[in-house]
Amino acid sequence: MDLKIFRQLILVLCTTFSVFCSAQKNDLGAWYMYFGSNKISKKFNFHNEIQYRNFNGIGNLEQLLIRTGIGYDVTENNNNILLGYGFILSQPYINGEKSENTEHRIFQQFITKQSFGRFNLQHRYRLEERFLQDDFRMRFRYFLGFNIPITNKQMLPKTLYLSAYNEIFLNLDSPVFDRNRVYGALGFIINKNLRIEAGYMNQIQENKNRGQIQIGFYNNIPFTGN
Questions:
Q1: What is the pTM of this model?
Q2: Sign, CA torsion 82/158/183/32
């Protein structure tokens, strides 16, 4: 599948998602996401991330999330430890009225990657210190994700692939369980540093299920020639 065909596929998906989201009266949300992990030296990387989350297809902001951080590879291109900061603007509905609150977040994480045949696994362990407007909380997150190439045996440029993950969120106080996310998507590797995914994520929180259409763009262009 070439890039032109994949662009057409994404356009069809976006159009379908927008119509479906409108019909569902906010039962289905949409997240538009950018993730950057850019080498600044042989061992260090710069993490940059923006997520625009909507209650519906587009135009009704639920949350704006901006994250950044500096990571260090313990081994070559693997076993990355990272210290980061996040700013989160939320606009939830309370008793039918839209409100607004902000959160500042410091986080530490460790990512390790493994490969088994076509399976490319990623484990992420993250600890968050959350400075809310009227509260302070700490939370642990475990993420298990994998990518499987479809049109090639490896994750090479111009490859179509399947992506999936499960992530659980645990508070360090009561209640311990915060939420769980399950995700599945179709992705395309544009070149060795760029790829795109379109998929669906279901989130369980406070015994409620909510679906999210997700479109993500991933940028690994290095800031150094090393």
A1: 0.87
A2: positive
218 Cβ contact partners less than 8 Å away, ≥ 6 residues apart? 35, 36, 37, 194, 195, 196, 197
pLDDT band at residue 78 using 50, 70 and 90 as cut-offs: very high
Contact 139, 170 (CB under 8 A): yes
The tokens describing 216, both together, are 């993500």
Both tokens assigned to 86: 């996040």
Across-strand partners of 130?
105, 137
Q: How many CB atoms lie within 10 A of CB 215?
A: 18
pLDDT in tens, 187-198: 999 999 999 999
Q: Check if CATH label 2.50.20 holds for domain 3-219.
A: no
Q: What are the residue boundaries of the structural domains of the chain, listed by start?
A: 3-219
- Residues β-bridged to residue 181: 167, 203
Query: Over the chain, what is the mean pLDDT?
Result: 90
Distance CA 71, CA 78 (A): 11
